[in-house]
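Side project, low priority. Logging it here so it doesn't get lost.
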Amino acid sequence: MLKRPARGFTLIELMVVMTIIALLLSIALPRYFNHLDRSRETILKQDLAVMRDAIDKFHGDRDRYPESLDELVEARYLRSLPVCLLTDRADTWQIIAPEDSTVGGVYDIRSGAPGAARDGSNYADW
């Protein structure tokens, strides 16, 4: 009677495959996380630009600045308040009031996210 050869992989073959997979992951993962950070920063800049544009349009239409960010949503200048991807919250935006407080409460907006961007600038300065 002939003995059949065992089917399957040897331990050495499995270790070689696992080593190759680990090597590929060590190359790909840092690039992936850097890409995620860049995309979050890009979305934050875009959200700030959209909200500043809505504030300017509100001011142009009504000759005053909005009292709050919620007023922009109620007046349909924004569909909803964007969520900051760095803080995962919509209530961390920093409101800058106009010098003349009789014309409204929201002149500009900044990010409330702590820390610095990849270029070294603080998120709060954007």
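Brief comment: Strands lie at 94-96, 108-110.
Revisit when time allows.
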